[in-house]
Amino acid sequence: MKYYVVSDVHGFYTPLVEALTEAGFFKETEPHKLIVCGDMMDRGREAVKMQEFMLKLLEEDKLIFVKGNHEELLETMLRDLKESRWEFEWGYSYHISNGTWGTALQLTGFTDGEATRKYQEFIEKVKVTDFYTKLIPASIDWYETPNYIFVHGWIPCTKVGKKYIFNPDWRNSNSVQRHTARWENGMQLAEEFNIVEPNKKIVCGHWHASFGHCAYEKKGSEFGKTADFTPYYGNGVIAIDRCTAHTGKVNVLIVED
């Protein structure tokens, strides 16, 4: 099977399609699938197009969707809106700064004012979107092939103080451990704590690949003119987040396994 792998596309449909077109995804004649390593939505302004595109792939059995922290944020936002509506009215909520609020507005067609005035109706409208009812429920914590593991942040591990310890039984981790893993910097865990899976490469998103080039290759900066956002290949890790909201580009990793 040939896999086209992306991460953290954050609702930027046009850059995603451009990158997949350049990589040959749409002209591929062999059996192939798209793997999204989390954070399908938020920050971009093309949530509706992204929803339609991903749903079509899901229905064609061409999508593998690894759950990211932003998928969790949508579920959290609905709870927070019900409990602390004033934060959204005053624009203080981190759901606004993270783009989750904007995604929900796009998918429902509500305006800011309508969403806060009719918040219960807004919540119910979000809950019937295809993103909430079909795509997020189809997401998985990781996807594994003979030679690769695809995650959002990293595989679950054990934290003791400021240190991380590899847990060989990580596949049997609980929901809290899987939640925590979605927020981790996989490059850091692989390079500084050797949290890797023997004989496999872990492909991750969540953290911009320029971090790895800067921190471990001493190449360029994390951001700015010298930053390198191409995939970072390191100790058991391939990091592919191109920080699309900043660069306007999407990395596409192609693997056969």
Mean pLDDT, to the nearest integer, reads 96
Globular, elongated, flat, extended or rod-shaped: what is the shape?
A: globular
Radius of gyration: 18 Å
Oligomer: single chain
CATH topology of the largest domain, anyone? Purple Acid Phosphatase, chain A, domain 2
Q: What is the makeup of the main sheet?
A: 5 strands, mixed
Report the span from N to C terminus: 6 Å
Structural class: alpha/beta
Query: What are the low-pLDDT stretches, counting only 5+ consecutive residues below 50?
Result: none
**Which CATH class of the largest domain is shown?**
Alpha Beta
Number of strands: 11
Strand content: 15-25%
CATH H level, superfamily name of the largest domain: Metallo-dependent phosphatases
Helix content: 40-55%
Identify the CATH architecture of the largest domain: 4-Layer Sandwich
Spatial ordering of strands, largest sheet: 4-5-8-10-9
The number of domains is 2
Listing every helix as H and every strand as E from the N terminus to the C terminus, the arrangement reads EHEHEHHHHHHHEEEEHHEHEEHE
The helix tally amounts to: 13
Structure in words:
- There is one protein chain.
- α2 (about 45-60) packs across α9 (about 130-140).
- The strands form three sheets. The chain has a five-stranded mixed β-sheet with strand order 4-5-8-10-9.
- The chain contains 13 helices and eleven strands.
- With about 260 residues, it is of the alpha/beta class.
- It has helices at about 15-25, 45-60, 70-85, 85-90, 95, 100-110, 110-115, 120-125, 130-140, 175-180, 185-195, 210-215, 245, and strands at about 1-5, 30-35, 65, 145, 150, 160, 165, 200-205, 230-235, 235-240, 255.
